[in-house]
Each structure stands twice: as C-alpha cells, then as structure tokens.
Amino acid sequence: MSVPFRLFLAAALARTYPRVAWLFRSRFWVIQETVLPVLAVAAFAYAYRSMNAPPAYTGFVVLGAAMTTFWLNVLWGMGAQLYWERDSGNLEHYIMSPAPLMAVLTGMALGGMTTTIVRAAAITVTGVILFDVPFQPTSWWALTAVFLLTLVALYGLGMMFASLFLLWGREAWHLVNLLQEPVYLLSGTNFPVSIFPKAIAIFASIIPLTAGMDAMRQILFRTPGLFPVWIEVLVLAILAGAFLSAARRFLRVLERWAKEEGRLTVRWQ
Amino acid sequence: MISTMDTSAISTTQLTRTYRKAQPRRWWGKRIAQAAPTEFVALHDVSLEVRHGELFGLLGPNGAGKTTLIKILTTLLAPTSGSARVDGLDVVTQPDQIRPRINMVSGGESSGYGILNVRENLWLFARIYGVPSAEAHKRIERMLDVVGLADKANSRISYLSTGQRQKMNFCRGFITNPKILFLDEPTLGLDVTSARAIRTFIKQWMKEQANRTLLLTTHYMAEADELCDRLAIIDKGQVLACDTPANLKRRVQQYPLYTLSLAPGPNGWADLQRIPGVHQSTATTTPTTVELKLSLIEESAIGSVVQSLVNRGGHILSLKRVEPTLEDAFIELVGHSITEDESRPAEHRG
After folding, report:
1. Contacts of residue A3 in chain B, CB cutoff 8 Å?
2. H or E element: which one contains B74?
3. Nearest chain B Cα to A264, which residue?
4. pTM, two decimal places
5. Residue B319: beta bridge partners?
6. B215 CA to chain A: closest CA distance, Å?
7. B41 — contact with chain A (CB < 8 Å)?
8. Which of residues B175 and A37 earns the better pLDDT score?
9. Does B345 score more than 60 pLDDT?
10. Which chain B residues touch A13 with a CB distance below 8 Å?
11. What is the model's pLDDT at position B343?
C-alpha cells in the first residue's frame, strides 16, 4: 500500500523539527563545530602559505573543512542515528506508526542538512575572512546545484548506513569509525584530489564527497579537476539515485530481518 | 486481502515466539564456546481472542510473555510460528494496514527528544500518524489536563521526573485516537492520584466510542479487576486461563480463604501446605508482620494450621476469613503471587 505523500511529508517535517530545535537551543555548538574546524583549516592554510602554494589551495582547505561537517553529520547523525533511536525507545514508535521509515530518515536528513549548512557556512565565512580566500566562481547557480546534488547523494548514503545499523547494531559503530579517516584522505579534504593516480581517483569518486568537492572547487576557483564538471554532476546524480533506492530497499529487508531476530525493540541485544 | 470474516479486534492462534541467541563467533578460526542456552521460548501456543469494544487484560509475572505478545501484535516482532490478527489483519503480511489503527504505551519507556518540550514531543508523535497540526494541539491540551501535566507542557522532557515522562508517554498513546490501543503497564511508577486519574480516563475513553479496543498488561491486580472486561492469565509463555474477573475469582471460591497475621519470628509457615486440608499457602513479609494467605480444601483445617503455627512458636496477631480476590485466582492458577517471581533472568522480561 503506498503511503500518501501528505503523511510522508508530515512525518519527515516532524522528524526534522528536533534537529532544527537543537540548532537554536544548544549553546555550545558554535565553539565545538566552528572554532575547532577553523583551527584545523589554519594549520593547512599556513602550511600551504609557507610552501608558496597557489592561494586557491587555502580555499580548497576551507571548502574541505565545510564539506567535512556534512560527512561527519552523515556518519554520526544519519548512520548511527537509528541505533540511538532504538536505544532511546523512539524507533519502535516510528516503526509502529503508519509513516514509512524512509520519511523518518528523510526528516533526519533534512534536519541534518539544515543544521550542518549553518555550521558549514560559519566555517566558510570565518575561513574566508581569516585567510582571504580568492573566490572566482564561474557560476553561482552551478555551484548551488552541485552543492545540493552532493548533499542528496551524501545523505542518501547516510540513509543506507542507517538501515545497515538496524542489522548490525553496535558493530556498525566500528564501520563508521573505519569510514571516517579514510574518507578524509580519499575525498581530498585538504588537497586537490587530482593528484591521485587515475585508478584511485576513479575509485574515490564513488564517495559523493569526492566528486562533489572536486566539482565545486573547479567552479569556485577555476582550477582543473579530476573530471569535467558535467561528468562529476552525472556521477553525483547516479550515486544519489542508487543510494536512495538502496536505502529504501535495505530498510524494508532489514526491518523484516530485525523483526525476525527481535532487534528492533530488544535493547539488550 | 483484508478478511471481513474476522470479527475479533485481536486474535492469535497457536502463537509461538522463540528468541535465539547469536551463533558463537569465530576469532582467528577458534570457536568461542557459549555456555548460555541458545533458545528461549517467550510464547508457546498462545491462542486468544479479544472482541471489539473490549477492555482486555493480560496478567502475568515478569518474563511471562506479555510484552512479547504486545510486540507481535503491534507489528514490532515477528512470530516464530502461529498467527496473529489485529482488526482482522495479519501482523506479518499486513503490517502497513494495521499501523494506522493502533498505538502502544509501555510503562517505563524513555522515548522522546530531550531537547524538545512536552508539547513538541507529543506533536511530533502525532504528526507521524498524520494527525493535522491544529487537531494534534487540541488533543495534546486535553490529554495534558487529564494526566495533570498541563503546567509542564513547555518544559523540556530532559527536565521531567520519571513519573512525568510516563504521563507524557501515556498521552502519546491517545492523541492519535487509535482504534486498538495497547497499554503495557501504563501506571508503572505513578503516584496513587495519577494512577487513579489514568484509570478513570481509560474507562471514559472506552465509553466514548463503542468500537475502541484496549489491551492492557498490568502488575496491579486491583487495576485489572477494576478496568478489565476479561482477563488472560499468562505464565511462562502460556495462557493459563481467560475469563471475566468475576468468573476467575469464582474459580477459587470453592476453597475457603483465610488470612493470618503473624508477628515476625521463627519461619514456621514454610510447609503449611503439608497439613491435610490445606490447598495452598502464600506468605508476604512486611517489616512488622508476616501475612499468610491460606486456601483450604476443608474449612476445619484452619484449626490444624493454627495449632501447627503455635507449636512452632508463631505469635498469631489476627485471623480472618476473606472473600477471594483476583490475586487469589492468580495464585491458584500460577502457583505463586505475581510479585514472587523476580528471580528469573531479567534479560527476557516478557
């Protein structure tokens, strides 16, 4: 039975609400989520300056720091979230409700995007002011489109991770930990990913962050990238579609398995 | 396909649920031995029928299988074998059709978001059921008044006491106006006044619409006796009896019941059941007295009981004949009081 779009939207927006509320009610995120990443940016920015690297490299680092916040949000705020929801007793209410879990995950994603955009903007503005980043965008529209597409692909991946947590439970924490640092490297958080050998670069492109950041860097700083922007946009669109449909399918299958094994509600497992 | 033949609100047929522990894992090719048993039968061949409009109770000690049964009926857990239907729909094959019609409240649950206040949390859970925002707010105000939580409506739930959170969760179950509601120990940990208000509201809620059905599990015999149209007594995953509270009590009426109050002293009451004519005996120890409850096959056996207690140095403070309660029916069927079973492994709490 298909779920009415109105219910899907109502559930998604309802689940968005706690995350947005957190943004306004939590007082310390500015320090933790902005000042600390900017300190990390500073280290790379000064390193590049001391090596007389092109000024665009400082911009790479600022953009990398801003986009990394999305990656962390996808891992911890999406992937690990269903596990937390189960332990806090919310998951059983979501599953028992007529709203599909995809709506709940969409709400988490929308809330995560909203809060992280604010954080990323704070990092970017601070970085730009402190390090005089030379933006020369070819098109703000193209930049916005690539940015949004990157978010859809990233959060689609997050939804897929979230469904895996239903099956693996605590063990999925290790997966998240394992993914965190290698992705910093493979996605070229602090350097242009085009320096990788082609094979590694192609492999790295299955991470939405890699293709997204490379395309945005090409648009913002007019520097050469791994592939032309249109190819990276295509890759992002394919990844977004694949991750979202995989998440939907996984959720259905894994919910069934979790019900059979009693993992949806039994907290001691 | 929706069955139109099934007139029950809830029905289960030979429902069984077995929990399997994870398979032993290998670590560098070496098998790690697992000492604990690999299977636990939480429900065994449970067949029940709850009619539309009925307030049905499930009584049983910890680990009896009550919560497992509710989890299956609320589509959160798959049965190992047998079948279960809610509003005529199969819980395994038609969960999506069942979910808009039901809701559940569990005692002691900690759901909700600490960053949100009471009103916002309730609004969130109403919205995932598609309740329009304005209607949700109206229902929230009404329910908060019912449970006496109106003054905390704007408090973050992380600042609430356990009892206040329990009241909020109680409200959550009702604001979606379910056709069939599952209440798992709804008054657990609540003060007497709040528990009474909740019981009054449950009765009123059931009267408001004739087709509403409520399945309640509780530890409190008086609560079950006061609220339930019919009750099932469940222990070790099996239904031992299912009837109205009055009929269940009538089952033990054949045995005269006595209560004896003893001063604390030598443990001389342990084997009273061996005295000819004594059917059953249970003891409850308080700081100042020991309360014995005896059911007798022959009324005259009370003399032998008193004699036996006196001979063993017991100091009898009072003795009276009493009418059977639901607890007596429970003891008769299960063999012990509902609170005498805390020694079971807590991990498989039913």
Report:
1. 96
2. none
3. B76
4. 0.82
5. B260
6. 16
7. no
8. B175
9. no
10. 127
11. 35
Q: What is the DSSP string of chain A?
A: -PPPHHHHHHHHHHHHHHHHHHHHH-SSHHIIIIIHHHHHHHHHHHHHHHTT--THHHHHHHHHHHHHHHHHIIIIIIITHHHHHHHHTHHHHHHHSSS-HHHHHHHHHHHHHHHHHHHHHHHHHHHHHHHT-----S-HHHHHHHHHHHHHHHHHHHHHHHHHHHHHTTHHHHHHHHHHHHHHHHTTSSS-GGGS-HHHHHHHTTSHHHHHHHHHHHHHH----SS-HHHHHHHHHHHHHHHHHHHHHHHHHHHHHHHHHTTTT-TT-
Average pLDDT over residues A99-105: 92
Nearest chain B residue to A23, by CA: B115
B326 and B248 Cβ atoms separated by less than 8 Å: yes
Q: Do B120 and A21 lie within an 8 Å CB cutoff?
A: yes
C-alpha distance from A13 to closest chain B C-alpha (Å): 9
**Cβ pair A22:B115 closer than 8 A:** yes
B81 at interface of A, judged by CB pairs closer than 8 A: no
Per the CB < 8 Å rule, is B97 touching A96? no
Q: Mean of the per-residue pLDDT values for chain B? A: 85
pLDDT tens for B322-337 read 888 888 888 878 877 7
Contacts of A256 in chain B (CB under 8 A): 78
Give A98→chain B minimum CA distance, Å.
Answer: 5
Q: Are A214 and A189 in contact (CB under 8 A)?
A: no
The reply to whether residue B127 touches residue A14, judged by beta carbons under 8 angstroms, is yes
In whole angstroms, what is the distance from residue A82 CA to residue A87 CA?
9
Question: B347 — contact with chain A (CB < 8 Å)?
Answer: yes
Start-to-end Cα distance in chain A: 31
Q: Are B233 and B330 in contact (CB under 8 A)?
A: yes
B103 pLDDT more than 80: yes
| B281/B69 Cα distance (integer angstroms) | 30
Chain B residues in contact with A103 by the CB 8 A cut-off are 128
Q: Do B71 and A265 touch (CB under 8 A)?
A: yes
Contact yes or no for B10/B50 (Cβ under 8 A): yes
What secondary structure does DSSP assign to B280-306, as a single string?
EEEEEE-SS-EEEEEEESSTTHHHHHH
**Overall size of chain B counted in residues:** 350
Pairing mode, strands B26-27 and B30-31:
antiparallel
Cα separation values, B142 from A37, B137, B198, Å: 47, 9, 13
Interface test with A, best of B76, B91, B166 (most A CBs within 10 A): B76
Min distance B232 CA to chain A CA atoms (Å) = 24
Determine whether the interchain pair B99/A10 forms a contact, defined as Cβ–Cβ distance below 8 Å: no
Give the mean model confidence (pLDDT) for residues B268-286.
Answer: 81
